[in-house]
Design the sequence.
């Protein structure tokens, strides 16, 4: 089974557009392109990646799909479309011929806490089901109740929670995050990316011990078939090198069976996102 990094980004840095990349994140205030990542993946024994949108625009979606068409190691793209637009179907038709478009994401963390429960948004997400596109759920932990409502409303739609819904690792807080994440895991259509954790911890002093309670909750709640490894490169670089992020998760999963590790580090991404010929394993 290929080893897949299920969550990373590419961009040509634009200070005005990419305002979320704050001045204290100086190490990533530059371009990051496939030529930067491919040798890093190779050095860390990874076979490919899924590129995820970094700003909400069709231009970004087309940019990522173009990169994927020219670089075989980019196995899939999670792009952006306006889920509430009345012409959503027409927009999705534009990308229907793109075999590497495997999912859609909107940065719901920047919206109101009930955004995922809006009728137009939920209808848009439900419209992805017939096209076999996953929906990546990017939220803060306080928005988990809305994600719960969405999961109940679209039971046939694959939902993938990014970054464990950003728990307050830096503060050591577990609740209500843990209770809500366990409730979300009860929906069989929901999976979870183990990604973005080091940037929720103390950037300059985090240790695996800081992450372990949160990893425990996620792995126990979702089980080995619904958790996926993601580096969140290059965002992770503000808190650690790629090998440090990967190494921490490898140490945590050392006690799993070979098959469970194989699933976590690639097999689940292949299955959940339908990498390769659409719908294949």
Sequence:
């Amino acid at each position: 089974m290929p080893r897949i990094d299920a969550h990373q980004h590419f961009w040509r840095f634009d200070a005005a557009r990419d305002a979320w990349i704050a001045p204290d994140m100086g190490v990533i205030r530059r371009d990051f392109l496939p030529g930067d990542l491919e040798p890093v993946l190779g050095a860390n024994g990874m076979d490919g990646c899924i590129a995820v949108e970094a700003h909400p625009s069709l231009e970004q979606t087309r940019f990522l799909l173009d990169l994927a068409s020219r670089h075989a190691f980019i196995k899939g793209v999670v792009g952006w479309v306006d889920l509430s637009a009345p012409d959503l179907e027409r927009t999705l038709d534009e990308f229907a011929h793109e075999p590497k478009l495997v999912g859609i994401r909107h940065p719901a963390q920047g919206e109101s806490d009930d955004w995922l429960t809006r009728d137009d948004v939920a209808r848009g997400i439900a419209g992805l089901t017939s096209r076999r596109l996953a929906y990546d759920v990017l939220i803060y932990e306080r928005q988990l109740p809305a994600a719960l409502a969405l999961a109940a409303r679209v039971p046939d739609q694959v939902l993938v929670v990014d970054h464990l819904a950003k728990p307050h690792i830096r503060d050591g807080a577990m609740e209500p995050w843990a209770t809500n994440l366990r409730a979300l895991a009860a929906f069989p259509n929901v999976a979870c990316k183990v990604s973005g954790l080091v940037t929720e911890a103390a950037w300059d002093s985090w240790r695996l011990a800081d992450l372990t309670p949160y990893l425990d909750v996620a792995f126990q709640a979702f089980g080995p078939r619904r958790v996926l490894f993601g580096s969140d490169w290059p965002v992770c670089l503000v808190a650690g090198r790629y090998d440090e992020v990967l190494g921490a998760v490898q140490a945590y999963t050392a006690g799993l069976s070979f098959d469970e590790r194989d699933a976590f580090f690639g097999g689940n991404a292949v299955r959940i996102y339908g990498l390769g010929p659409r719908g294949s394993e």
